[in-house]
Amino acid sequence: MIEAASRDIDYLKTQTVSENSARKIISNYYDVLRSIVEAITALEGYKVYSHEAYTYYLKENVTLNASKQFDRFRKIRNNINYYGEIVEVEEAKDLINSIISLIEELKIELDKRMNQF
User: Which one of 9, 63, 78, 108 has the lowest number of neighbouring Cβ atoms within 10 Å?
Assistant: First the structure.
């Protein structure tokens, strides 16, 4: 899971954010973020079927800030995927940078938890 997420990040970093690509790139970065959270929960033996449930997991087991950020990105991704929301290029770039920052923070958390085993 971690290897796939790393490969996905490497691929996404090669993509140019444009009016046509912004929505899909944000959605794909969110998928990588969700994969990292899924890996963290899997270490504890959980199989989570709801993206919203990850928000509660992060709140209770990581940090409130990570939970709030994840939930924000989840809602943005849902608006993009289910309601056709358009995201401007500059907004998309800001979102991508924020998602990458949270991914990095959660990868550190994941590494700490993996070292406990």
Answer: 108
